[in-house]
Design goal:
Length: 149
Amino acid sequence: MSVDRNIHLDALYKDVILDHHRHPRNFGLVEKPAAQVEGYNPLCGDRVDISIALADGKLQDCRFRGEGCSICMASASMMTEELIGKSVPEVQKTIDGFRALLKGEECPLAVEGDLESLVGVRNFPVRIKCALLPWTTLHQAIHKARGEK
């Protein structure tokens, strides 16, 4: 890939992240959630509150609120768009795959669309936790909703 193309992609990815940060999708809380969990990263101060609704084995709704860096808030926004409507096993598989991808491990997922803009975060190890905080919190919310530890 040429240097010019890399620069163009980096700018595009930054624009996608900033758009999700400035105009978050699914911001707020689910009315009468099956579970609501707060995630906190004490290293940078990111805080995200995830609420979910489950129905018929699917993630019917997922919303978030919080405050933090653009990567954390954009990741939460993209996560909700990607996962609402998927079955709980699909959601878990996506969470695990996304975590592996950001940690530089083998990932069975095809990451496309807006989520692709977060792949570059793995080049900045201190920011990986920012991107993963919403995903880890969603994982906890699903376990809480299902009465699991």
